[in-house]
Amino acid sequence: SLVARMTLKAGKITSLAESIRAIADMEDPISHTLKKTEVAKDLVFEKMYCPLGVLLIIFESRPDALVQIAALAIRSGNGLLLKGGKEAMRSNTILHKVITSVIPDGVGKRLIGLVKSKDEIADLLKLDDVIDLVIPRGSNRLVSQIKAATKIPVLGHADGICHVYIDKSADMDMAKRIVLDAKVDYPAACNAMETLLVHKDLNKTEGLDDLLMELAKEGVVIYGGPVAHDTLKVPKVDSFHHEYSSMACTLEFVDDIQSAIDHINRYGSAHTDCIITTDKKSADTFLQQVDSAAVFHNASTRFCDGTRFGLGAEVGI
Fold first, then answer.
1. N or C: which end of the chain has fewer CB within 10 A?
2. What is the pLDDT of residues 135-155, one digit of tens each?
């Protein structure tokens, strides 16, 4: 999964270039008046978009993240300090050089800085008079360490424990396509499915058996919760709060939609979760009660992406 995240092939570079163009073509987000109120005669109150200031973003071993974050910072008028994973240092150095070389002199080449040593982070986290926001992307441990070490506001992006719940009324052909895409398309991504929840009435049905056979055919290793372990004889999972980032997932059966919602809110990471159902009432209940950044009805978790949403790129979730 580490190698998959670090690899920059021609196709990925092309899509990165397209996402930068999409951001460049967007309406300038800065200096827009959101609200204008005359609070008293000739006393006008204006609410406007403005840059946050200087951002320190610490991200994992994904060099494409550097490109997206830098493009968003330039577009939104923010200064930026970037610290990527040491495994991608050479790629990050080249990408930083490419980006800063095209920043006009009037803006300044130093708008985006690249932090190369982990040792520098501790000193930077003390600069609460200079840095306005820290965004750590990575493990819960990293996010917790950053929060404990600074007075600067922290916006944490941690785990991607994404669920797909197949309701008893699901179209199983659709369910198969969605689950395969969510797990197999790019398992190292933070929006890949990690846990498959299935309504108990679908246990041992032809549709579910076909789906599990397709996953196995693709090379996906399935681990079971207590119920799935007993009924399907698959290896038992140690923890529901687990992000595989590989060709493996957890499977568990639940009694009803409320049990699925409770499971997701308890064990998930509030990233992206999906319900597959033909019952609109069940879908609405799921969409309203699952407390995640993105909640989908009949769509793969892989759709959770800034570019896919038409936003150009993303910094975190």
1. N
2. 998 777 888 889 999 999 998
Q: How far apart are CA 32 and CA 289, in angstroms?
A: 33
> Cα separations (Å) of 75 from 51, 196, 230, 312?
10, 38, 53, 11
Contacts of 44 (CB under 8 A, 6+ apart): 36, 37, 38
Domains of the chain, earliest start first: 2-148 (3.40.605.10), 162-309 (3.40.309.10)
Classify strands 248-254 and 162-166 as parallel, antiparallel or unpaired: unpaired
The per-type count for the chain, helices as H runs and strands as E runs, is 11, 12
pLDDT digits (tens, 9 = 90+) for 228-256: 999 999 999 999 999 998 999 999 999 99
Contacts of 260 (CB under 8 A, 6+ apart): 163, 165, 167, 197, 199, 254, 275, 286
Rounded distance between C-alpha atoms, residue 16 and residue 57, angstroms: 19
Query: Are 162 and 194 spatial neighbours (Cβ–Cβ below 8 Å)?
Result: yes
pTM above 0.85, yes or no: no
